Amino acid sequence: MLVAPLNWGLGHATRCIPIIHGLLEQNCQVIIGANGKAGKLLQQEFPHLPYVETPGSEIRYSQNKIFFSLLLLWQMPRFLKQIRAEKNWLKQQITEWNLDAVISDNRYGLTNPGIRSVLITHQLLIKTGQGILLDRWIQQIGYWLLNKFDEVWVPDYQGVWALAGELSNPKKLPITPIRYIGMLNRFTTKRNVARVATDAHLLFLVSGPEPQREIFETLIVQSLPNFTGSCTLIKGKPESASLENFSSSEKLALLYGKPDVKIFEHLDSNALSLEIEKASLIICRSGYTSLMELLPQHKKLVLVPTPGQPEQEYLAQYCQQKGWAPYLTQEYFSIEKANQLADAFSYQQYTPSTLLLQPILEEWVNSLSGKNS
Fold it and tell me: What's the whole-model pTM score?
């Protein structure tokens, strides 16, 4: 079967990692379909699995949040063209690989009547930042696309532990069957056995589309001279990753006298898990996958939503309201302000206990023979 995430940021790819592991545990033959940064990341995580290049280009966000929605609307024809390209591409892959199923993450074109198709998304309601009327219009278009799939898997819970709030739990659901599969987390949660974090060790996770990824990285580096502790900066660039970018770390040491700074272009899941474990505070974007992976680790977070990205702004506000993590706007970001915010915030742990993914995967795999016999 094919597993294919969208290449809009790294989150769609990283949350496919536990899906792929779960399928492999069910003795499924998995083919990875991806492109760009998402493809590089999954190839590094699963070098032994077949890999095919998918069509599509990465979305680009405006540096000015005022033009965010206009830029997205301008790219809508490209999005629709990509859906058509994905449908034609999938027909070829079905023949070439004798596929019986496809699980795609936000790739709305990867559905075909000849095979079982599942779409993963937490965006049953999309926040445009332009009011409820446009939100509902986009939702109708989304549901028209979702209803072409056999099932939609929502990586979230219903009820009090719904991490995406009304994004994943809207009042109206699509016609196609919906399964809430809980958190997709590539890390082993260490709730009660986590090692004590190093004092004043910060972990910066920089991610998302350009140019905002680079802008955020620059703000962090410019703020480092006033920080006296140790820190690790992970740039979120798997396409240029090496084990460790000592040249960047040494450059900071020479410029600012910061010998306790480590910089990585990218880390695989195991190495990143170790960095999370030793952090006393994590500063990151409020992307949904980041929240899924980090909140269950019970680490202090400060969220810095991508400017003008309505979903991240909503999730940051929602997490602060629930007491899970405070947020700081990028416009006013500094390490000092982030530390002060974390010290003053009364953190409430995110502790959903139900594990849903593995039984759902097992049931779904067992049902494949019925659809494709």
Answer: 0.88
